[in-house]
Amino acid sequence: MADEHLRDYVLERADKDTALSEQARLVVLAAFSGDEDLAEVLSDDVTSQAVVDALTTPDRPDEVPVGAYLTSIGVQGFRGIGAGVTVPLQPGPGLVVIAGRNGSGKSTLAEGLELALTGINSRWVGKSTVWSTAWRNLHAGDPASIRVGIAEQGRGETAIGVDWPIGGDVAVSDMKRESPNVLGWAAALEMYRPMLSYDELGTILEGTPSELYDQLYKLLGLEQLTTAMIRLDLEVKRLKEPSVAARKARDALRPRLDAHEDPRAVTALAALGKVKPDVDAVRPLITQSSAATAPASWRHAAGLMVPEHEQIEQACTAMRSAADGLMAASLAADVLAADRVKLLETGLLFHEKHGTQPCPVCFDGTLDDDWAQRALAAMAKEQEATRALTAARSANHRARTNLIALVQGVQPPPAEDASLTTVAAARLAYEAFSMPVDDDVAMANQVEATLPDLRATYEALRREASELIVTRDDAWHPFAIELADWLKKAEHSATVASKLKDATTAQKWLQENAEVLRNERIAPLADRAKEIWAALRQESNVELAEIRLVGQKTSRKVALRAGVDGAETEAFGVMSQGELQALALAIFIPRATSDESPFRFVVLDDPIQAMDPSKIEGFLSVLTELAAERQVIVFTHDDRLPAAIRRADAPARVIQVNRRANSVVSVEESSNPASRALDDAVAIAYDENVPDEVKRRAIPHLCRDALEYAAWDVYSMRTLTAGASRTEAEAAWEAAKRIRARLTLALGGGDTALDAWLGTWSARKLALKVANKGVHDGFDDYKAAVNATRTAVNDLGNTTG
Question: C-alpha angle with apex 198: 197 to 202, nearest 5 degrees?
Fold first, then answer.
């Protein structure tokens, strides 16, 4: 099947389907066109004729793009590369391996190429904004640019790229991009994407079955179809949302209302529980105040007041003072005389009012004028002495009355309430505070002594009650909001019914036709993928039997069938992560190398990172075969692929990417990993800008890396040339966790071989010390560490047995 533009393919099929209504047909096409067109087609207004014409007009490009090769990749001021660096590439078929350890700038070159080709960087997708904002190189970030040289067949050399404005406050999205669309590649980049990044490869393996399905759609050039289906699915979901959301909201509310203590919950539950919910009964509950719904005990507790401390203190002080004054006046005055004065005063008043009368006290004498004269004389003598006592008594009475009024003015706490955990303490404090006491001073002492506890317990009770009321108010507030939201959705659901019908019809049509499309697309690619897998699997006994995309929506998945020793099963159950990555490559490569693709180059970023050692040789054979017809560019951070190229003497260029201080990156013919690590250690050791503590910690790690790289080279070369499998060699190496054990493997013997090799050579011993103890504790003599390690690495390289 020719790789025509997907939208045009769908347009052709939709035109032939007479069962599809005109409106549903427009919905299908709008789903391919974009969000704005889909929104207009499904709006309340009549779709404009301009939009109808745009949707129903074929979108095939007038000019077929020609084949092209890459001639160079140049990056400056971007990510890990500061000063400009350019990787020259030979246009035409061939294999190029661009190798560099992590942090060397190799990934920056791959990211730059991807950004120039596609306008996005898959490494940033789904990551935090720091990935897309911290893009400018720290050491030499201005100017920042990317240049990709291209040789088009029959047209000569051209270039595409990206430039950013100078300045520190520039986002990566502010780039000015020379788009490859000017070369006629807009549709081709969707259909025959020539680059597979490691992040995209990892996403395929780490996602859910549906995500893997979508990723394979993308690898098969079906991402536009996937996007349209997702867009339409989202639109259908949006149109269903009012009724679905109302039902979900009601179902979620009902059990919560049933458990809620607020009286309004009972009313709301009854209204929602009906087959047709009673919206009129629910509506008042949204705005109804909850002030009157709290229990009386809560409201009473929340309003409890205690006299101010100063007020009580003044009253108690007055009480004590009055009591002291009364005691002093009582001691200074004849109490009996004072009482006689009072009695005489009463008698005089009686005589004044009633005249001469028999004495009502003794019944023998007579209260006449003569008696009154004598009484006045006697009273005058004693009245002065009793005046002070009378005043003291009056003051004492007023002080006691005032204090009692303050005490009695404090309301008692409510009765016991299980929801008020502080009420018991408050009641005890109140009883102690209000307990009757006859003695005035004792009463004042009691009030002052019990006031702090009363104040504290009342405050706790008042706070607890207030919090309960607020909590009840707060607890009902979300119900009111949710009920309002439910009402809005329930009323709105009826208004979108016709739109939902058209969108659902279009959705169903697209799903049915997508099944046909994907089966037509995947058949030839599956056959080619099987051939590539056969080369990649090497020592694996897993044979790829079938690749199919099955299901749809939430049940979509990839059916990968595999044969294991004659028995067929699901591939995922028997394939390792490395085998699954190899399988993803087997699916990607046929699509990227389609005869209809204008791209005569294929770019793979770190494709072997999780690949088993046994797969490397098979992968190299696939690359070599592809390189006979294509320009194949492989970015890799480890040395296994370059090592395989060296062992196989494969016709390939290996370009080494190195990074020095201040993000200075260089490219050159390949060097071994050990020398690169040592070069980095030297750069750090001699860089005065690097802090000593960083040198002390970093250099031993680099020295150990160099020693392990050299040991691995010696060990793997000897074992593999002796006939051992890569799997066996890798397993033995991984089992040897310590540097001494790995040196022993490299030397081909036990501890005696290592001891003999160490001998009296101080450099070898020092190198082992740096790589062993120095990694954990640090090492201060940087230059000695590097020199000793370089000597040991060279000695290992000269080891023959």
Answer: 125
Q: Strand 542-550 vs strand 366-367: parallel, antiparallel, or unpaired?
A: unpaired
Report whether 248 contacts 272 (CB < 8 A). no
Q: Phi and psi of 563, rounded to 5°?
A: -105, 130
Q: Do the Cβ atoms of 209 and 127 come closer than 8 Å?
A: no
CA distance 2 to 126: 33
Cα-only R_g, the chain = 47
Contact between 355 and 403 under an 8 Å Cβ cutoff? The reply is no
Q: Where are the beta strands (DSSP E) in 316-442?
A: 357-358, 366-367
Let me know: does 71 contact 89? Beta carbons within 8 Å.
yes
DSSP at 251: H
Nearest to 269 by CA among 257, 278, 287: 257
Residues of the chain with pLDDT > 90: what percent? 22
* Secondary structure (3-state) at 334: coil
User: Which pLDDT score, from 0 to 100, does residue 657 have?
Assistant: 92
Amino acid, res. 241: E
Instruction: Choose among 245, 285, 289: nearest CA to 264.
Output: 285
Quote the pTM value. 0.47
Question: Are the beta carbons of 371 and 365 closer than 8 angstroms?
Answer: yes
- Residue among 97, 80, 54 nearest 605 (CA): 97
Q: How far apart are CA 658 and CA 187, in angstroms?
A: 36
What is the tens place of the pLDDT at every residue in 569-626? 777 667 776 677 777 788 788 878 877 788 889 999 988 876 777 678 888 889 999 9
Question: Could you tell me which residues are beta bridge partners of residue 544?
Answer: 562
- In the three-class reduction of DSSP (H, G, I as helix; E, B as strand; rest coil), residue 664 is classed as strand
- How far is residue 442 from each of residues 162, 405, 446, measured CA to CA in Å? 92, 16, 6
Cβ atoms of residues 226 and 217 within 8 Å: yes
Average pLDDT value for the chain: 83
The DSSP bridge pattern shows strands 631-636 and 652-660 to be unpaired
Give 327's Cβ-side CA count (13 Å radius): 9
- The reply to whether omega before 607 is within 30° of 0 (cis) is no
Which contiguous run of DSSP H or E holds residue 559? strand 557-564
Measured CA to CA, the distance from residue 228 to residue 380 in angstroms comes to 118
In DSSP terms, 74 is beta-bridged to 86, 147
Separation of alpha carbons 420 and 457, rounded Å = 12
Tokens matching residue 61:
């490009």
Residue listed under structure tokens 């690097």? 690
Cβ partners under 8 Å of residue 749, min gap 6: none
Q: Which helix (H) or strand (E) holds 99?
A: strand 94-99
**Residue position matching structure tokens 């799997």:** 727
Take residue 546 and report the two structure tokens written for it: 């079938």
What tokens does 205 get?
A: 């393996």
Cα(79)–Cα(53) distance, integer angstroms: 44
Looking at 260-361, list the stretches that DSSP marks H as alpha helix, in order from N- to C-terminal side.
263-272, 279-287, 296-302, 309-332, 335-354
Kind and range of the H or E run holding 633 = strand 631-636
State the Cα–Cα distance between residues 60 and 3, nearest whole angstrom.
Answer: 11
Q: Are 120 and 114 in contact (CB under 8 A)?
A: yes
